[in-house]
Write a structure and sequence with these properties.
Elements (H helix, E strand, L loop, with lengths): L5 H14 L4 E5 L2 H12 L3 E7 L6 E6 L12 E3 L8 E2 L13 E6 L2 E4 H7 L3 E7 L1
Antiparallel strand pairs: 1-3, 2-3, 4-8, 5-8, 6-7, 6-8
């Protein structure tokens, strides 16, 4: 379990669940993880998600999406900025993922959003991950 990088742990849990062909995965919740999950749902990379509240730390239950041939919709998910090496970009240098077939998730001063949305709003920030 990763204590120093919870976002990398979040992405690894999703990646491992996809490789094992699980239908759902449970992940310890935080506000940033909830926002990333919300973006994955809006971009249709996951079917649905549920926040399971308890007295300690909540859980995010993510229902993964597969196509008709039982192939996962997420073919790759990669952490870009990490605690040892942060990657910040301005609004005019936001990276494109697989020629705009994928999405980059960026945390900005206006919240967590996709790279395309950040470019439209004219804000830069820290590139958290790429999903394709």
């Amino acid at each position: 379990m990763s204590k120093s990088d919870p976002i990398a742990d979040y992405l690894t849990r999703i990646r491992n669940a996809l490789r094992a062909k699980h239908k759902k995965v449970d992940i310890p919740a935080s506000n940033l993880k909830r926002e990333i999950t919300k973006i994955l749902h809006e971009e249709r990379y996951i079917n649905n998600y549920v926040i399971i509240e308890d007295n300690k730390q909540s859980l995010i239950r993510i229902y993964l999406r597969y196509d008709q041939e039982d192939r996962c919709v997420i073919s790759g998910i990669k952490r870009i900025s990490r605690p040892g090496l942060r990657k910040y970009v301005s609004h005019n240098s936001i990276p494109r993922v697989y020629n705009n077939l994928g999405v980059s998730i960026i945390t900005t001063s206006q919240g967590v959003m996709t790279g395309q949305e950040a470019k439209k709003r004219g804000v830069g920030g820290e590139v958290l991950c790429h999903v394709w």
